Amino acid sequence: MEIERLLELLAATDEETRQEARRALEAKGAAAVPALVETLLDENSAVDWGDAAIVLGQIGVPAFAAVRDALAAATTAEAQRRAGWAFTKFPPEEATPLYIQALRHPSPTVRADAAYALGNLGVEATGAGPALVELLGDPVEEVAERAAWALAELGPSVVGLLERARRSPVRVVRRRALEALRETVGDDGLRPRDRAVLERLVRLRLCGDRPTPFEEASWLAVAGGDQAGILELLELSHPRPATFAMGLSAVREDWQAGFSFSAPEYPELTRVFVTPELDGWTLVVGPWCGPYAEVRQMREIVDACRRLSARYGATQAYAPDLYSDACSWVLAANGTVHRQYAWSQEAVVDEGEPPPCELAGRARHPGTSIVLSTYEVAACCSISSRELGPSTPMRGHGLLARTPYGRLHGEPRRALPL
User: Fold this and answer.
1) In whole angstroms, what is the distance from residue 210 CA to residue 317 CA?
2) Low-confidence winner among 109-113, 125-129, 209-213, 397-401 (lowest mean pLDDT)
3) Nearest to 305 by CA among 342, 266, 270, 267
4) Percent of the chain, pLDDT > 70?
5) Does pTM top 0.85 for this prediction?
6) Mean pLDDT in the chain?
7) What does the alpha-carbon distance between residue 206 and residue 94 come to, in Å, rounded to a whole number?
8) Is the pLDDT of residue 178 over 60?
């Protein structure tokens, strides 16, 4: 009866009352576990299921088996989500051995969530390495992928285990071990034999690679298909063959890393994707290429456009922003920059003669600060990233390269999809 009363208090609107109920239920220990698990799974309960999950985690080991069994028996997606969240929140110092045992549970959902919990613990769970390596051969793809991810999160201590797994007679285990190694040491950290395997895989993917549209990155558009000359003029280095999936993922992940407090300064400037020749243009893709009005990058990109256009006849730079109305472009031909336009809430640049499409946009929308999207200007003047697709004429293959900033600070180690 007392536990039922405490659960009623756990549904109170007053936070202080709920905190007291959580502490009292935690003190009940194993005696409160059945009622808490029932509440956790009850979609009609007045108790916030997150509160029930928190108390179960605070009770710790006495609640572990009950939550594990609830996860294994869950018959709805919502019940599985709730039980899975609670299952991964037990105190690591107590639950790590139990999570390792759960990697061999008959339920694939339990195995996958146990791997996830261990991966979240990172280097604190290095003892889980051998059991996670066993899961690389799991018949359920999701479980094996979660194990590979968790192994990478455990850090350098599992490199030896993964290198031994690379000699497994089971092909799928070798492949998944390679994926985990790439996440752990980066492509440059692979042993020569594994690096050669990776290069062969990339070459195979390149055979069927086709252009992919993108919206979330800035780019330079350079007339022609002289990748080597573009790399030299922009001082890009360490080029390696890359599919569209690899190249676009790299610049996307680098951009997202820029929002992480733990990332080095400006990680988004480390790499660019240099596309094959696309309908007469080569694109250099990445935040490093963006002419932004409010930073010194505008000056640097204007200079790059000037130098590139002097060699190739025409070069343009484009920087859209999906999250605001900010936009910018630089248009250059034969060594002369004819147009610079950049608009954001912080600054405005409006220099040179607008191209006909921009003038037409101004005529349609007189008195407005934004006349065309970046993609519309690109489509009129060269090629729009939004319009790329399987039918876009293509010659050659893409390259992933380091910028001068990337040479100085290094590039992320995370593996890229092939």
Assistant:
1) 23
2) 125-129
3) 342
4) 93
5) no
6) 89
7) 47
8) yes
CB 220 within 8 A of CB 308: yes
DSSP type of residue 235:
T
Q: What is the DSSP string of 153-216?
A: HH-GGGHHHHHHHTT-S-HHHHHHHHHHHHHHH-GGGS-HHHHHHHHHHHHHHHHT-------S
- The yes-or-no verdict on residue 410 having pLDDT over 90 is no
| Sign of the dihedral through C-alpha 374, 380, 385, 389 | positive
Cα separation, 343 vs 352, whole angstroms: 15
Q: How many Cβ atoms from other residues are within 10 Å of residue 9's Cβ?
A: 17
Tell me how far apart the alpha carbons of residues 358 and 99 are, in angstroms, rounded to a whole number.
60
355, 377 in Cβ contact below 8 A?
yes
Q: Is the pLDDT of residue 80 over 90?
A: yes
Biggest CA-to-CA distance, the chain: 85
| CA Rg value for the chain | 27
| Higher local confidence (pLDDT), 366 or 40 | 40
State how far the alpha carbon of 300 is from the alpha carbons of 305, 325, 388, in Å.
9, 23, 27
